[in-house]
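Sample A.
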Amino acid sequence: MDTKAAIIALMSVWGVGTAACLPAQAEETAIEDEGDADNPLLNRVWIQQGDTASPGAAQIFLADGTLVTDSCWETYRLSKWQQVSDTAISWDEDGMTINADIVSVSPSELVLTLHLVSEDVEQRFVPAEVPYLCPEMPR
């Protein structure tokens, strides 16, 4: 057996040639199995809009109850979240429960009203455009 044939045989045994296809198939199956495909809030990267939003401020409400919060300025955060009703959600942030009303949600926009200790704050989001790269931050 020549060197090239030996390398191809080893790669086949190790599964190198087929491993790249498996995660995409597993991911599609997992999302389908959630049964929440009709909920536009879920499994989408939402980028916050507005003058007060940090660059790249994003929230991802995963169907498994994990909330991913990130921005170009801060390290990402993983929190537990839940959909309390058709029009309300809540999540844990630093030991406090944040309650929010879903003012509107569609595949193109998410509007939340957060009920904070001192005030109610409206936040607007749009789906992230791919690819997205955080802008260079001044130091």
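Sample B, a different protein:
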Amino acid sequence: MKTKTLVALSLIVGIGAVLHTIIPGFVMGLKPDMMLSMMFLGILLFPEKKNVLLLGAVTGVLSGLTSTFPGGFVPNIIDKLISSFAFYYLYILIAKKSASVQSATVLTVIGTVISGAIFLTSAYLIFGLPGSFAALFGVGVLPAAVLNGIVMFIIYPIVTGILRRTQIA
């Protein structure tokens, strides 16, 4: 793994950690996971399995540490590891056809929905949920998917332009 890649990924994860920390939990401790959009951005920019594993593990631990959801540490780790590879394989399928801002946005929305379902399911199975699955999914995950899609639509062209000019990627 190149040092440039590690530095770029660490910056992306650091930005995601800050965003995840400053956004308050609003529904029974559940909050939009902005760290997901940064993890997905890292996968889009550096699509290799070792990077996906690293991003999933680090993002899971950092999300777990900054989670306001009751018992959210372990479900965050499980969720990020699984959803990072799910996103990666979806990207591999789509990248052959088109690698555009629109496809990155759609993949981010799908990835966020997958991630939210995995998080809530693992939290339910391990600790139980503070409310109904459907309510938490509808009020927490779906708005987060829309928000992450908007963030990706704005950030992806900016970051790819910067990386192209600096020749990091």
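Observation for Sample B: The two ends are 12 Å apart (CA to CA).
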